[in-house]
Write a sequence for this structure.
């Protein structure tokens, strides 16, 4: 797997939008050929969101060296932050092969790497495109709402039927409702639109849940910390939404939910301007507006026009197709294979037949300690046992089309490991063996940090294998008899 660090932040007082966005990326990367790790500067609320992912809570803002140390061995680093400076970005860029920066509003001049901005209309932002002298080549931009990372529940878009009348209004101001808008909006709706059903979603970090509960009436439903699946369901059932103008706005667009968006942070201004230009929103609303509630009331009346809501709904679905994560993942995979030929992953039971066929190759058997053909039943039992063995690391090297180029196995005992390697017929003669030995040794060391040496047993007549091991840094230490046959013993020391 391609080791990928995702660096971001999230706090109760500022919101968890960055974490939500990065979790969307994490989900997509984790299902592909990447091994993502979230490195989050956050509080207990952030940790609650991360509990099903591979993550570390670390205050990298005060101690940036801690992140830079962790990045050793990582191929990709993705940064999604409003807090770090250009110096940090440059330092990260120098540590990894593929640096990626998520932006919303041209916050800084980014160093060379991939800049992702999923804001609607960001393809028209005037980003600098000159080559930077940081040793990584030119900048690459992935811009526009087609690159917006959505949670997996929102990646399948579909048309929706717009009702003639507004009968259900969804109100959601993010995980924290940092401007405490939901109670006031609810009171206005209860007064001005008493017969319309109100659905209020209060985030896990919001402090106004008790206030909302006190305001609840027969026409009001309140949900606390609704799951992504529940949010999608509520959006699809609602005729109109009143929302903050952050990441949720793109989920509303993906579900075709006509929306009144209120800017609650400066970085949301581009979202609103872009969506007005692309006909998903009709007006700008800001939490500081003197008559915000009156303006929202007037907008609801305007949006009672069924044809207008149909227009908004179609525009949202047209501009957010839910494939942003897939596009980013695909581009990162392409970028990786511009420089590399193989990636590693752990073997699974689904690989059993392919490994059986490779292991029974005539040349593989001839160079094995046990040269006898392997029977299918024995292989299945052995393979299943090895996959469950904590002292056995079974890796597969795969090409860009996910074909198995070879297998490499480490049988670990205390601080030593015995290695076995074989290359698939279609990938022989390409020099993969030595590269596999070098790169997999690093994976072994990470898997079992106390490993001090790797041992290889090679038949003296297997000249090509000897050359591969020597090229990978293995040293001949002598000869050893196994099953009455003599083998050269090679050792790789860490």
């Amino acid at each position: 797997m391609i080791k990928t660090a995702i660096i971001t932040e999230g706090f109760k007082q500022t919101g968890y939008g960055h974490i939500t966005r990065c979790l969307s990326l994490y989900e997509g990367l984790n299902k592909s050929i990447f091994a993502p790790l979230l490195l989050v500067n956050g509080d207990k609320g952030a940790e609650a969101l991360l509990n099903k992912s591979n993550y570390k809570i670390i205050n990298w803002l005060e101690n940036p060296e801690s992140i830079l140390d962790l990045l050793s061995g990582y191929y990709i680093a993705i940064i999604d932050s409003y807090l770090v400076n250009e110096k940090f970005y440059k330092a990260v860029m120098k540590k990894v092969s593929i640096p990626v920066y998520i932006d919303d509003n041209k916050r800084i001049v980014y160093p060379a790497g991939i800049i992702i901005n999923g804001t609607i209309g960001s393809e028209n932002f005037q980003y600098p495109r000159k080559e930077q002298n940081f040793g990584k080549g030119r900048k690459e931009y992935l811009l526009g709402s087609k690159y917006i990372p959505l949670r997996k529940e929102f990646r399948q878009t579909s048309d929706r039927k717009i009702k003639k009348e507004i009968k259900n209004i969804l109100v959601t101001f993010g995980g924290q409702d940092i401007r405490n808008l939901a109670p006031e909006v609810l009171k206005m709706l209860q007064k001005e639109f008493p017969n319309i059903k109100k659905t209020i979603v209060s985030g896990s970090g919001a402090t106004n849940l008790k206030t909302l509960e006190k305001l609840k009436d027969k026409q009001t439903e309140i949900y606390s910390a609704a799951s992504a699946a529940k949010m999608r369901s509520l959006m699809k059932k609602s005729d109109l939404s009143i929302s903050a103008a952050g990441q949720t706005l793109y989920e509303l667009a993906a579900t075709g939910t006509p929306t009144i968006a209120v800017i609650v942070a400066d970085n949301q201004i581009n979202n609103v301007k872009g969506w007005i230009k692309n006909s998903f929103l009709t007006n700008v609303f800001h939490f500081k507006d003197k008559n915000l509630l009156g303006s929202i009331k007037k907008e609801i009346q305007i949006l009672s026009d069924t044809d207008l809501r149909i227009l908004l709904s179609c525009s949202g679905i047209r501009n957010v197709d839910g494939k942003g994560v897939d596009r980013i993942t695909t581009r990162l995979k392409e970028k990786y294979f511009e420089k590399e030929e193989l990636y590693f992953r752990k073997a699974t039971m689904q690989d059993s037949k392919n490994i059986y066929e490779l292991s029974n190759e005539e040349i593989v058997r001839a160079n094995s300690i046990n040269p006898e053909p392997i029977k299918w039943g024995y292989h299945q039992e052995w393979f299943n046992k090895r996959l469950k063995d904590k002292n056995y690391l079974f890796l597969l090297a795969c090409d860009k089309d996910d074909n198995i180029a070879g297998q490499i196995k480490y049988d670990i005992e205390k601080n030593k490991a015995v290695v076995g390697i074989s290359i698939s017929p279609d990938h022989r003669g390409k020099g993969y063996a030595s590269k596999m030995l070098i790169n997999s040794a690093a994976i072994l060391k990470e898997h079992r940090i106390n490993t001090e040496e790797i041992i290889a047993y090679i038949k003296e007549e297997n000249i090509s294998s000897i050359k591969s091991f020597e090229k990978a840094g293995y040293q001949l230490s002598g000869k050893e008899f196994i099953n009455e046959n003599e083998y050269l013993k090679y050792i790789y020391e860490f």
In short: The chain has 17 helices and 20 strands. The mean pLDDT is 93.
